[in-house]
Amino acid sequence: MIKEKYIFKVIVYVWQVKNISMEILDFYESYRMLFTDERINAALQKLALRP
Question: Taking the domains of the chain in order of start, what are their residue ranges?
């Protein structure tokens, strides 16, 4: 009985970790699309022009 509860808790924790990981990956994918190479190069050029 105790072993079954322990296994169930472990499974729940694994699901939670998987869900959090998927949220992080989704955020990263959407965030990465915002920063294309053109935008990064433009930002670096602006920084290079500053005294």
Answer: 2-49
Q: What is the DSSP string of 1-51?
A: -HHHHHHHHHHHHHHHHHHHHHHHHHHHHHHHHHS-HHHHHHHHHHHHH--
What does pTM read for this prediction? 0.55
Stronger pLDDT, 46 or 7, i.e. the higher one? 7
* Contacts (Cβ under 8 Å, ≥6 apart) of 12: none
25-44 core/surface letters (b: 16 or more CB in 10 A; e: else): eeeeeeeeeeeeeeeeeeee
